[in-house]
Amino acid sequence: MVLTLSDVLVGSFTTVFGVLVGHFLSDSRERRNSFNKAAEQFKGSFWKEIEFLDKQFLVDRASVNALKRSCDVLFNAVGRHQKAVFIFREHLGCINKYRFKQTWNEYCKDGNNIHYFSEEYPCGDVSQQYESEAKALRRINKLLRFAKPK
User: Is the distance from CB of 58 to CB of 149 less than 8 angstroms?
Assistant: First the structure.
């Protein structure tokens, strides 16, 4: 059997196409795994605050957290959160980076200002603190929506 020029070209094209598709699938799988790993680390950085803020995790909230105020807990964790944000946002696309930045700013502005946390999440009486905790929990959950596994 004699190979014609068209047979060689079709074979070469098919081979190159197969290599490109394989490379694309391998690259996208690697990016997806990298995103999922960063997303897990990001979600993990908020776990202690979610546990503190979410009422379902605490049986006797008054005795466990009598000395803790939500604004203090959030402010003390912001450094860890900023580090997680810095790492995680590199795995987002352009549009999601923009949306993520807006959501992050809604949660903590620049993150280094205790006055923002005291004003945004006041620690006054019990009802005011519960409202603050609910607001913080809503905003944290909004941030964590960006970290859904792919």
Answer: no
Picking from 90, 93, 81, the residue whose alpha carbon sits closest to that of residue 144 is 81
The dihedral through the CA atoms of 30, 35, 37, 38 has a sign that is: positive
Q: Which pLDDT band, with edges at 50, 70 and 90, does 138 fall under?
A: very high
State how far the Cα of 68 lies from the Cα of 55, in Å rounded to an integer.
Answer: 14
Are the CB atoms for 76 and 68 separated by under 8 Å?
A: no
Under CATH, what is the fold of the domain 36-147?
Four Helix Bundle (Hemerythrin (Met), subunit A) (1.20.120)
Name the pTM for this structure: 0.73
DSSP E strand stretches across the chain: none
d(CA 130, CA 30): 42
